[in-house]
Amino acid sequence: MSRSGLLKAFLRPNEDLATEGRRDVVEHLFALSRHRTDVLDAGVVTLSGEVRDSSLVPLSARLTRTVEGVVDVQCKLTAKGST
């Protein structure tokens, strides 16, 4: 099997990555918060928005990295009331 063949097994459409990250990670941790989960380029997920519990922000980034096909996470979540 070629290298490209091996990589294709891990490549997923950006919308699939965003949906899974939103459904499996962000909505469970931040159910009542305003947030976005976007995949803008080749498996790089951006988490953004305002959340109530800032202690869960690092956890959300780590869990998002476990979604198959995610290559990096840019975490731009902020705690409600922080500047």
UniProtKB/TrEMBL annotation:
It comes from the Bacteria. Residues 37-79 form the BON domain. InterPro entries: BON_dom. This is BON domain-containing protein.
